[in-house]
Design goal:
Elements (H helix, E strand, L loop, with lengths): L2 E5 L4 E10 L2 H6 L11 E5 L14 E6 L5 E8 L13 E5 L3 H5 L7 E5 L1
Parallel strand pairs: 2-3
Antiparallel strand pairs: 1-2, 1-7, 3-6, 4-5, 4-6
């Protein structure tokens, strides 16, 4: 299933083709092997409170979300071969193409909504 992800706080669109990784296999694979990630894409990883970018080919914009889908932290252009810190209050992560956060003006404290498409 695909989702549209909107920032309710700023009334902006983050992704219109987001998918969910909520099984061990889908979370483990994530975006490994992806060399292009077009605007409008998104991967919601559930549950998740930290990420690594080992073996990734591209940088990503990353949102750490609490259980109410409020942004705990936002990382712009998080590069390959890095590890994020652990966010104890985060329950999921939304990975987006670089530029999605700046374009939507998303920042910590903003509230998101996921709408099936």
């Amino acid at each position: 299933m695909r989702y549209r992800v909107r920032n309710l706080t700023r009334n902006t669109l983050l992704a219109d083709q987001a998918t969910v990784a909520d099984t061990f296999g889908s979370r483990f694979k994530g975006l490994l092997g992806v060399s292009e990630y077009p605007m409008g894409s998104g991967l919601h990883i559930v549950p998740c409170n930290s990420i690594h970018m080992f073996f990734m080919k591209i940088a990503l914009d990353v949102l750490f979300l609490d259980p109410e889908l409020t942004v705990v932290d936002a990382l712009e252009a998080f590069p390959p071969w890095r590890v994020s810190r652990i966010y104890p209050s985060a329950r999921s992560v939304l990975e987006l193409p670089v530029g999605a956060l700046r374009g939507s003006q998303t920042q910590p404290g903003d509230r998101l909504v996921f709408e099936p498409t």
